[in-house]
Design brief:
Largest sheet: none
Number of domains: 1
Radius of gyration: 16 Å
Strand content: under 5%
Shape: globular
Order of helices and strands: HHHHHHH
């Protein structure tokens, strides 16, 4: 299975960027960095998994900036934070259960701490990976429609992102993200 959905999304950008594999590597690189940071914060009893969400959000914004630069798209940092927050809100239901479990088991010394760090790391990888996939799909859709992404309002971009999120088969996307984690850890 690999990263078929991500590669499909990147393929839609081929006329805007010459190296689709570099875009895939960028998403996976940020997802791995988020996983490592989140796993470290997941070791903190109780609040660690909550801290990991904030850390992951920071990685999503940084990834969006890097991808936008690669594609020559300019956004204000506030708009990127807003888009990343919208993605977090949409993915929130999918990751909430993992965060709660990680927080609960983190209080158990030893295995609980290791378990919480593992759950938090994998969850963060999947979140950043999915956020990258949706962002790339949104950019591909908008650019291929001839839209000037740089001049779109924050609300228009949020709506475009929401539309991509709604069209995503979340079960398959999460399966792909888990598979990508296993292949790249």
């Amino acid at each position: 299975m690999g990263s078929a959905m991500l590669k499909e999304a990147v393929y839609a950008l081929k006329i805007y960027y010459y190296d689709s594999e570099e875009i895939v590597k960028t998403v996976i690189g940020f997802a791995l960095a988020a996983a490592a940071s989140a796993a470290a914060s997941g070791c903190l009893p109780g609040a660690g998994s909550t801290v990991a969400i904030a850390v992951s959000l920071g990685f999503v914004v940084a990834m969006y900036v890097a991808l936008a630069k690669m594609l020559g798209v300019e956004f204000g940092n506030g708009i990127l934070k807003s888009i990343a927050s919208a993605v977090l809100a949409d993915l929130g239901g999918a990751i909430a259960a993992f965060v709660i479990v990680a927080a609960a088991i983190s209080f158990v010394p030893g295995f609980g701490t290791i378990g919480a760090a593992t759950i938090t790391g994998i969850t963060s990888f999947c979140y950043v990976y999915l956020a990258g996939m949706v962002y790339i799909k949104m950019l591909g859709t908008l650019l291929n429609m001839g839209k000037s992404v740089s001049t779109m309002s924050e609300e228009e971009l949020k709506q475009a992102m929401k539309k991509e999120m709604d069209s995503l088969d979340m079960r398959e996307a999460i399966k792909e993200a888990k598979c990508a984690y296993k292949q790249n850890k």
